[in-house]
Design a protein that fits this description.
- By secondary structure, the protein is of the alpha/beta class.
- Helix content is 56%, strand content 11%.
- α4 crosses α5, α5 packs across α15 and α8 packs parallel to α10.
- It has an 8-stranded parallel barrel with strand order 1-2-3-4-5-6-7-8, surrounded by 8 helices.
- The termini are far apart.
- The protein has one domain: Aldolase class I (TIM Barrel).
- 44% of the residues are buried.
- The chain has 15 helices and 8 strands.
């Protein structure tokens, strides 16, 4: 009998959720995703010091010998995620997701500019924009920015999705892919209710992604659903059949080492016959639903803050390393 990972790949696109290039080589996923926390962690691994150093040296050459270290770090910071992305694209056959600075999450114009800049860096390195997804937090402002980028042929991945309203707004704006955060939804409900655990089928994160998937398929949206942020194997197996799942190396390893039957849980056929009411989405509806959904509003803010702190930590790492290189 095939292991769970092999069976999962037959019905769902498996994506590696990591900046660790060695882990991506091990599990041969079709795609890979990164985020500020993962890039910051990878930047501190000795095996990837050369990527960091080359990025810093390239930034110094660009800004010139007389430029301040702050200018060098700023440019290197902008380039590092793409540097990792280029290495990842040497391994995965399809796409990598690279994230816009989370501190721009409520600024539509700045997010558009940053998305264009990231794509320009990839294209300057000879990579087609069709192999890159620009990751943007699913605020209302972020969704509007992504809609503009999509019209320019820049594909986007809207991240930190916790509520159906975020998902619907993305779908109606032609977003390529969304990333609902299964495990973080579970975290919130466990803390809020005092419940230690949920059966996998009743896991609040699983229930949320299932509802989003069924809504999209029921009403014919092309936006892909990629479950993310898993806490356990049960959350993954209960979503077998969803468009994509982005999974950490530790859980990929567990799937690969586990034998057993993996039944399909989600399908277009089931979604089409489901009883779902269509919601007309606009900013007023989005804001009202976001306010009413305490979990979504809290987790979105928390996620943006967490990514912002990771970026600040990365800036400090780059500044410290530049000082060592130029000492």
């Amino acid at each position: 009998m095939a292991n769970l990972l092999e069976q999962l790949k037959e019905m769902t696109v498996v994506v590696a959720d990591t900046g660790d290039i060695a882990a991506i080589e091990k599990f041969t996923p079709r795609d890979a995703t990164t985020n500020p926390s993962l890039i910051t962690a990878a930047a501190q691994m000795p095996q990837y010091q050369a990527i960091v150093d080359d990025t810093l040296k390239g930034a110094r050459e660009t800004v010139g010998a007389d430029a301040s270290s702050t200018d060098v770090v700023s440019l290197a910071f902008d380039r590092l995620a793409v540097s990792f992305g280029l290495k990842i694209l040497d391994i995965v056959p399809h796409r990598v997701s690279t994230e816009v600075d989370a501190r721009l999450s409520y600024d539509t114009d700045a997010t558009i500019a940053k998305g264009r800049d990231l794509i320009a860096q990839y294209e300057a390195a000879g990579v087609s924009r069709n192999r890159v997804l620009i990751k943007i937090a699913a605020t209302w402002e972020g969704i509007q920015a992504a809609a503009v980028l999509e019209k320019e042929g820049i594909h986007t991945n809207l991240t930190l999705v916790f509520g159906l309203h975020q998902a619907i707004a993305c779908a109606e704006n032609g977003i390529t892919l969304i990333s609902p955060f299964v495990g973080r939804i579970l975290d919130w409900y466990k803390k809020d209710t005092g419940t230690d655990s949920y059966p996998a089928a009743e896991d609040p994160g699983v229930v949320s992604v299932t509802a989003i998937y069924n809504y999209f398929k029921k009403f014919g949206y092309n936006t892909e659903v990629m479950g993310a942020s898993f806490r356990n194997l049960g959350e993954i197996t209960e979503l077998a059949g969803v468009d994509l799942l982005t999974i950490s190396p530790s859980l990929l390893d567990e799937l690969q080492s586990t034998e057993g039957e993996l039944p399909r849980k989600l399908s277009v056929e089931q979604a089409l016959v489901s009883d779902i009411a269509k919601i007309d989405m606009n900013k007023a509806t989005f804001d009202a639903m976001h306010t009413e959904d305490r979990m979504a509003s809290e987790k979105l803010s928390e996620g943006i803050d967490g990514f912002a702190k990771a970026l600040e930590a990365l800036e400090e790492i780059l500044a410290s390393r530049l000082a060592e290189l130029e000492a």
